[in-house]
Amino acid sequence: MDFEGIKRHKSSITTVSWVASVAIIFGGVVPYIPQYRDIRRTQNAEGFSTYVCLVLLVANILRILFRLGRYFETPLLWQSIIMIITMLIMLNLCTSVRMATELNTKRRSFTDFDWNYFWSWSRFVDYLQCVLAFMVLAAYVTYLLLDSVLFVESLGFLAVFTEAMLGTPQLYCNYRNKSTEGMRFVCEYKVIVLPQTHTIC
Fold first, then answer.
1. From residue 169, how far is each of 16, 140, 174 by CA, in Å?
2. Which of 91, 104, 191, 199 has the fewest CB atoms found within 10 Å of its own CB?
3. Which residues of the chain are under the pLDDT cut of 70?
4. Residue 105: left if φ>0, alpha if ψ -120 to 50, beta else—which one?
5. Which letter, b or e, does each residue of 100-116 get, where b requires 16 or more Cβ atoms within 10 Å of its Cβ?
6. How do residues 107-117 score in pLDDT, each as one tens digit?
């Protein structure tokens, strides 16, 4: 193969690698775009379980912390960051819709520390406070135990296991509402994202 052929071959490999990286980074959020648009259009978030956001936030925060102890590919790191941002956007929308349709309900907040209303708060800022509190606590524990191989591997396992349980909250929401609305997006996420995330452990 001449020099120009080798150059074209390397360029093709670089292009394919770049496209694959972009697909990994943004592929996981694609199923939530029509979900977001549908909730915004109908002003009805009952078909989407906010516990899906909780599962993905916990899983991706743990995955980022896992990288501190065991390196994995940068596209997977960016995938986690993009997914965290996406889930916060979804939570913001769902909270706004719920506040607009449930004007007479008593306001609940994170600082009430009422376990009966965990993750059923009235304002987006309460969800943000909870996520930040979890991030700080998990980061502190990780900092203390980063030299423990057992802890690091357990962190990776918890990240993957939590993400694998993604369908559970949506399944319960569908059972309660007697509907399969929202489940398609969970299935699409599992097909697109989970095969790549399993490679980190």
1. 36, 28, 9
2. 104
3. 1-12, 103-105, 169-170, 172-201
4. beta
5. eeeeeeeebebeeeeee
6. 888 888 888 88
Q: What percent of the chain has pLDDT over 90?
A: 43
Residue 41 to residue 100: CA distance in whole angstroms: 14
d(CA 16, CA 191) in angstroms, rounded, equals: 20
Q: Which two tokens stand for residue 7?
A: 């150059």
Residues belonging to the chain? 201
Q: What's the pLDDT tens digit per position in 100-138? A: 777 656 788 888 888 888 998 989 999 999 999 999 999
Number of domains in the chain: 1
Tokens of 39: 């909730």
Residue type, 64: I
Q: Which long-range contacts (CB under 8 A, 24 or more apart) does 94-97 make?
A: 94/39, 94/45, 94/48, 94/50, 94/53, 95/121, 95/122, 95/123, 95/124, 95/127, 96/124, 97/39, 97/43, 97/44, 97/45
